[in-house]
C-alpha cells in the first residue's frame, strides 16, 4: 500500500479544527500523525464520536505500517520495536531503533547487581543519552519456582522491559503470570508449544515470540498465533554461527523483511529479532581467556550486522560485566548512526554558547552548526578544562570542510554571526579562533569582522595544547591596535 499523504489522513478527520488534541488544525494533526509524533487516540472526536467509527477504522488501516509495531514493557522505558515502512533507511527513515536486550540467567548469583547496572547504564554521546532497552531473563535453573522468583526480583529492580526466555511452557507461563502487569515479551512459541503459550499471551494481551529456523514453519506459526487472536507477535528465525551459518542467519532476516515490508505478507509483517547471545550455546572450544575474547567479538559482530539490516531487537550476552562496556558501547554507537533520520539535517541552533565560566579574556572558538562538529568541539573544549565562548555559525547544518567549499561557512557568515550574537560585547578583545580547516578564510574575516583571527587546530582534540601554547590575548590585541 502506498504511504498515505497528510491529505489522505485529513480527509478522514473531523475537520472541525477544534484544537482538543493540542493542534490548531486537523491538517497539522494529520502531518504529525504520519510522523508518529502523536497517536490516533489523541483526536477526541475520533475516539468519542460514534459517527466517526468508520473513519477511525479506515485511519487505523491506512496508518498501520506494513511491519506492525510491538510494545514491550510499560511506563517511560517501554520499547516499541518494528513498525517500519521501508526496507532501506534512505527511502524514508527508520522509526524504531533496534532494541538492545542483555541476557541474564535466573540462577546467577549476582543477578540483581547486574540488573541494576544494566538499568542505570547511560552513556552520553553527541548530545544523546545512549541506554539499553531491556533484560532477557533466561531459565537456566530448569526449575519453575526459581524462574518465577527470579522474574519477580528482576522487575522489582528495573524499569526496563523484560523478555522471559524459557522453552518449557509451564515455567514460562508461571513466571509471566507473576509479572504480567509489566507487559513482558514471552520467548517463545514453537511448533510444539504455540497453543499453551499463545493462549496465555492472547488472554493477557502480551507480546509473544514465534521461533523456528524453518521460514515456512515460522510463517505457519505466525498465522496460527494471529488466528488465535494475537496481534503482538515477534519473529525469530534463529541465529547461527560458524561457516555458512552467518549467511543463513542474514538471509532469513532479509527475506522476512522483504516479505513483510515490500510484499506486505501479513505473516511476515512483524518485528524480527535475533539472538547473538546464542553464540555461547553453539561453541564448545573455550580453552583460555583469548578464546573468550575472540568469542565475545564474534557475538558483537553478529549484533552489529543485525543492527545494520534493521533487525528489530537483539539479545546479547556480553555486556553484563563492567569490563565489557566496549561491547555495548559499540552496539549503541552503531545504532545511533544507523537510526538517525536521513531527512533531518543534524543541525544545532546558531548562537554563542558558554563553556565553563568564561571571563573577559576567554577565547572565542568559531565553528559550524553541524551537530557532529559543534558537539565534539564543545566536548573537547570542556575536556581541556577551558572556560571559553563557542560562536556557532549557521552553515545550514553542514560540516566545516564542505561548508567552506560550498560557501555556507564564509568570512561574511562568520562576521554576520559576530554582530548578530554580539560576541565581542562579552569579552575585552576582538580575537576569533577559527578551525584549521577554514584557514583560508582568515584574511577576509579579519577585514569583514574587524577582528584578529587565529587559525586553530584542524582537529578539535588539539584545542587544549593549542591554547596552552598560543593563547596570548594582550599580545594579539597590541598587534591588532597597531594595524
Ligand atoms: S482533536 Fe481531532 S478534530 Fe479536533 S483539531 Fe485535533 S484532529 Fe481535528
Describe what this molecule looks like in 3D:
The chain is an alpha/beta fold and 483 residues long. The chain has three domains: 58 residues, Electron transport complex subunit B, putative Fe-S cluster (3-methyladenine DNA Glycosylase II, Chain A, domain 3); 270 residues, TIM Barrel; 132 residues, Rossmann fold. It contains 18 helices and 17 strands. Strands 3-6-7-8-9-10-11-12 form an eight-stranded parallel β-barrel, surrounded by seven helices. A three-stranded mixed sheet has the order 13-15-14, sandwiched between helices. The structure holds iron/sulfur cluster. Iron/sulfur cluster binds next to helix 2 and helix 3.
Structure characteristics:
TIM Barrel; 483 residues; 3-methyladenine DNA Glycosylase II, Chain A, domain 3; 3 domains; 17 strands; alpha/beta; binds iron/sulfur cluster; globular; Rossmann fold; 8-stranded parallel β-barrel
What can be said about this structure in brief?
The protein is an alpha/beta fold and 483 residues long. The protein is built from 18 helices and 17 strands.
Amino acid at each position: 500500500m502506498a504511504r498515505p499523504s497528510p491529505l489522505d489522513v485529513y480527509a478522514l478527520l473531523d475537520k472541525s479544527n477544534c484544537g482538543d488534541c493540542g493542534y490548531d488544525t486537523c491538517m497539522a494533526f494529520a502531518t504529525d500523525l504520519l510522523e508518529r509524533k502523536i497517536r490516533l487516540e489523541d483526536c477526541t472526536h475520533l475516539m468519542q464520536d460514534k459517527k466517526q467509527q468508520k473513519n477511525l477504522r479506515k485511519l487505523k488501516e491506512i496508518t498501520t505500517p506494513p511491519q506492525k509495531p510491538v510494545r514491550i514493557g510499560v511506563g517511560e522505558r517501554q520499547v516499541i520495536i518494528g513498525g517500519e515502512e521501508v526496507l532501506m533507511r534512505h527511502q524514508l527513515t527508520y522509526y524504531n531503533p533496534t532494541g538492545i536486550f542483555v541476557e541474564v540467567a535466573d540462577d546467577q548469583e549476582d543477578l540483581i547487581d547486574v540488573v541494576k547496572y544494566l538499568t542505570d547504564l547511560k552513556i552520553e554521546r553527541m548530545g544523546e543519552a545512549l541506554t539499553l532497552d531491556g533484560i532477557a531473563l533466561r531459565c537456566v535453573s530448569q526449575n519453575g519456582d526459581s524462574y518465577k522468583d527470579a522474574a519477580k526480583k528482576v522487575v522489582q529492580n528495573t524499569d526496563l522491559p523484560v523478555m522471559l526466555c524459557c522453552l518449557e511452557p509451564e515455567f514460562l507461563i508461571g513466571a509471566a503470570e507473576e509479572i504480567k502487569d509489566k507487559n513482558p515479551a514471552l520467548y517463545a512459541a514453537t511448533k510444539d508449544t504455540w497453543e499453551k503459550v499463545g493462549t496465555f499471551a492472547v488472554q493477557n494481551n502480551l507480546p509473544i515470540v514465534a521461533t523456528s529456523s524453518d521460514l515456512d514453519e515460522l510463517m505457519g506459526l505466525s498465522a496460527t498465533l494471529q488466528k488465535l487472536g494475537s496481534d503482538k507477535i515477534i519473529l525469530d528465525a534463529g541465529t547461527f554461527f560458524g561457516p555458512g551459518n552467518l549467511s543463513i542467519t542474514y538471509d532469513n532476516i532479509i527475506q522476512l523483511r522483504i516479505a513483510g515490508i515490500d510484499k506486505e505478507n501479513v505473516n511476515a509483517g512483524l518485528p524480527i529479532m535475533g539472538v547473538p547471545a546464542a553464540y555461547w550455546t553453539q561453541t564448545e572450544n573455550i580453552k583460555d581467556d583469548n578464546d573468550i575474547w575472540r568469542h565475545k567479538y564474534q557475538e558483537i559482530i553478529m549484533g552489529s550486522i543485525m543492527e545494520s539490516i534493521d533487525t528489530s531487537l537483539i539479545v546479547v550476552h556480553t555486556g553484563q560485566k563492567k569490563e565489557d562496556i566496549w561491547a555495548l558501547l559499540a552496539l549503541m554507537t552503531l545504532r545511533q548512526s544507523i537510526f538517525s533520520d536521513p531527512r533531518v539535517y543534524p543541525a544545532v541552533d546558531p548562537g554563542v554558547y558558554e563553556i565553563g565560566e568564561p571571563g573577559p579574556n576567554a577565547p572565542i572558538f568559531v565553528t559550524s552548526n553541524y551537530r557532529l562538529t559543534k558537539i565534539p568541539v564543545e566536548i573537547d573544549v570542556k575536556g581541556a578544562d577551558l572556560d571559553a565562548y563557542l560562536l556557532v555559525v549557521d552553515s545550514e547544518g553542514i560540516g566545516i570542510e564542505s561548508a567552506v567549499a560550498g560557501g555556507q561557512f564564509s568570512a561574511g557568515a562568520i562576521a554576520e554571526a559576530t554582530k548578530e550574537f554580539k560576541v565581542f560585547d562579552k569579552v575585552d578583545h576582538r580575537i576569533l579562533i577559527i578551525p584549521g580547516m577554514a584557514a583560508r578564510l582568515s584574511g577576509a574575516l579579519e577585514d569583514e569582522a574587524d577582528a584578529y583571527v587565529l587559525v586553530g587546530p584542524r582537529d578539535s582534540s588539539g584545542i587544549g595544547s593549542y591554547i596552552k601554547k598560543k593563547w596570548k590575548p594582550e599580545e594579539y590585541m597590541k598587534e591588532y591596535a597597531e594595524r
